[in-house]
Specification:
single chain; about 200 residues; alpha+beta; 4-stranded antiparallel β-sheet; 6 helices
Length: about 200
């Protein structure tokens, strides 16, 4: 009987931007999951309708994964797909690095995480956005911006003007609850049984 070596994959989340918003690029989650499965990814699951797909892959190059997913989604769903990929460790770090005040959210405050594509991922992005310090709190960490403001102040913030900014197409936004949920799902998937998550290779 041949020996069996299990080569573990990595759990990722793909954050698609611009789908199922304002009646544009409507993609059912079942169809999106099927696209990922056809592209060769395993243990695919989606979370809510905003385009969050958790999956396993043996590849370690997030940029290559982004390109692969964008090609697959563009072909399958007839739109110019853009996606940001983070692995389970990066999602855990995003939650761990949240500003201290976010650990006990205030019901009177909105909290968003802006996920940055590699093209704009640098501390200098704060200078490009020029947030209204009196109205909104914005902090940079590698790969993300943490943004918060009170609802009454939102119309006067830079976040409210983001759709007209040159960097808008290079990021995607998820709120605090969605970010925490995705991180938890990635962690749970990463802890799954090796036989479920691994690629089986027979050795003779």
């Amino acid at each position: 009987m041949p020996n069996v070596l299990y080569v573990p994959g990595v759990t990722y989340v793909a954050l698609l931007r611009g789908i199922n918003v304002g009646g544009n690029h409507i993609i059912p989650m079942a169809a999106l999951a099927a696209t990922f499965e056809r592209a060769g990814f395993t243990n695919v699951r989606t979370y809510i309708q905003s385009g969050n797909v958790i999956f396993d892959a043996k590849a370690r190059d997030a940029r290559a994964l982004e390109a692969r997913i964008e090609r697959a989604c563009s072909a399958a769903h007839a739109y110019a797909a853009k996606v940001i990929v983070r692995d389970q460790d990066e999602m855990a770090a995003i939650v761990a690095d949240m500003p201290r005040a976010w650990s006990k959210p205030d019901a009177a405050t909105r909290y968003n995480v802006l996920y940055l594509r590699h093209t704009i991922d640098a501390p200098e992005i704060l200078d490009r956005l020029s947030p209204e310090r009196r109205l909104e709190h914005v902090a940079y960490r590698p790969g993300v911006l943490y943004w918060s403001a009170r609802p009454k102040d939102v119309p006067r913030t830079q976040m409210a003007k983001l759709s007209s900014h040159e960097i808008y197409g290079e990021l995607t936004v998820r709120n605090l609850n969605t970010t925490r949920a995705i991180a938890s799902l990635c962690a749970a998937e990463a802890r799954g049984p090796a036989k479920r998550r691994a690629a089986k290779i027979e050795r003779t």
